[in-house]
TrEMBL record:
Keywords: Membrane, Transmembrane, Transmembrane helix. The keyword Transmembrane applies. This is EamA domain-containing protein. The keyword Membrane applies. InterPro entries: EmrE-like.
Amino acid sequence: MMNGDFAAMLSIGLVVFAQLLNAISVLIDKYVVTHTTITRPSVYVFYVGMISGTALLLLPLGIVGMPDATTIWLSLDIGFVFIASILFLYRALKHANATDVVVWLTAVSALTSFIFGVFFLDEQLPRAFPFAIGLFVLGMFFVGHFRFYARSFLQVIAAGLLFGLSVVLVKILFSHASFIDGFFWSRMGNMIAALSLLFFPSVRNHVFHITRSTSKHVGALIFVNRALNGIALLCILYAIGLGSVSLINSLSSLQFVFIFLLIFAFAKYVPQLYEHEFRPGHILHKVVAMCFISVGFIVLFL
């Protein structure tokens, strides 16, 4: 039996590590859609969705059960919502700064997960919800300076809405099926949704063309990136089992903090990728934004 204090500290440590991995993953996403042969977000989404097929390795172990109709429909819903959400996300990352995108994404997805929870899970909004909205808006104002193109702004909002919906759908699935079954069939939903992109001739043609021209280095980078996402997810799920869900959710703002710090550290080494992240006087605004967003998460979840 694990000591309570140690379990709590381990839980926090796992979440901090997971958010660091998620931050690294976002920066890799930004690099892939702007500085490799896979510049079309729809093509990158296809590859990301197909990597979910690695879950098929669980089948020979005999631990995956046959799904019922509810599991199938929920898994398909999760798959199509997830694929749509990352499509909007990658489109926004292609044209906007990573720090601007992530701060809006995390705030919108956090707020909408509560709202969708009210409709689908009969949950109650926390009393601090309006206050948290105010803090998020202030933070997003400081970090973004409303410098998005209109299209990028709408894509970030759409991605946040869909991410929030996917959180609720995943919660419904895991309350209906076992963890292994929910994980496996939701991965299959991702793969089916990714395959559906091939029904669009422009996507299909670019997928086949880019697949032939993409280097092994880029392919390995994409695979490693998805592995980072998988490790982060497992860390968060294990942390939930050890500690407080509210505390874990409140630490979600660390992803933006880590992205800010990583870009600040590596901007001089890859200036062509991050040259627009820190304009004169912009660093202070981003620090103030981090404070507003972090406090917003704390009052929302704690």
